[in-house]
What we know:
Blueprint: H1 12-40, E1 85-86, H2 91-100, E2 106-113, H3 121-131, E3 137-144, E4 160-166, H4 173-189, E5 198-202, E6 206-208, E7 220-223, E8 261-265, H5 266-285, H6 293-304, E9 309-311, E10 331-333, H7 334-339, H8 343-348
Parallel strand pairs: 1-9, 2-3, 2-5, 3-4, 7-9
Antiparallel strand pairs: 5-8, 6-10, 7-8
Helix pairs in contact: 4-5, 5-6
Amino acid sequence: MAPFPFCKASSGPVRVSRLKLLLCCFLLCLIIYYLHGRKAALSVRSAHPIFHPMGMDRVRKVTDMAVVKEAEPLTPAETPWGAPLVWGDNHNSARRRAKFVQRGLRVGLLALVVGTYAQFIRRFLSSAETHFLPGQVVTYYILTDNPRTLDPPVELGPEREMKVVPIAELPGWERLAHRRMTLLADAIRDPIDSEVDYIFCADVDQEFVAPVREEILGDLVATLHPELFGMPRNAFPYEVDEGSSAYVEEDEGDYYYTSEFYGGLVSEMYKLARACSLLILQDQANSITISGLEESYLNRYLIDHRPTCVLSPEYSWWDSDLAAHVPVQRLVSLGRQCESYDNKQREKHKC
């Protein structure tokens, strides 16, 4: 009897051998396909968690098997135009610190303290004393409508000083947001310009929680928005009103930057503050009010004048379902954080 009942005896040994060979090849292919499929099936997760609740995971499917492996979130080392994208603990940052640390630099840290924001100033300064550019000469510039909020004075370490710059009362956040760039430009012109090499502007309702060292220094420094890092370009809240001076066209923009922390050389920061204040005044003259306020004008400027140094969301972070994962949190927004708390949590965290 032939080895396979469907084979005719007249086919002889040649037909049987061919069938055996085909069967073996088929079984071998199944084994290879199965083993390769288990190893290759990957689910590549976006660095930004908003994709997941919306069902927008970027998945590369090799088979329909359930075995998956998540890739590590990407932490790029530079921008598309070659500027460093700073992550504080990597080798590139260590090299940047080594380049700046021996120069004897003078750095300013500026914060607006108006109205109820006075409650944050001592926490802000205390954390900066611990974590902001330790070992460097630092001057704190406090622009305030009520200098009494700094009585008694905050005790500062060696080579640290604080200068209070009185400003007119600015009730209401919206009015403050429209005026901040003008106030920054005025303060840089006098007295900051002659006193420091670099100036950084920070929202006062933040806390330094890990070291922020010389890796942040650069000619023009911007910080990535933590909730928009890793998001597609069409998700960025650029200004869409074509009549606004902050308008961004669909083919413009690489990243979306936060207004919570940015800085650079004094000369570059004056150009930024002056240009943004003029854009704001232009819109006010045309009775145009935009939703993004100051941050929209900042992003418009940084599209036209790309930063020479971009800080990762480590340098502006708050706990949010949308916030990107970062290796280390360095500067945390208490104000944005408090917005997510209920009343009991706000009381506990002294919001």
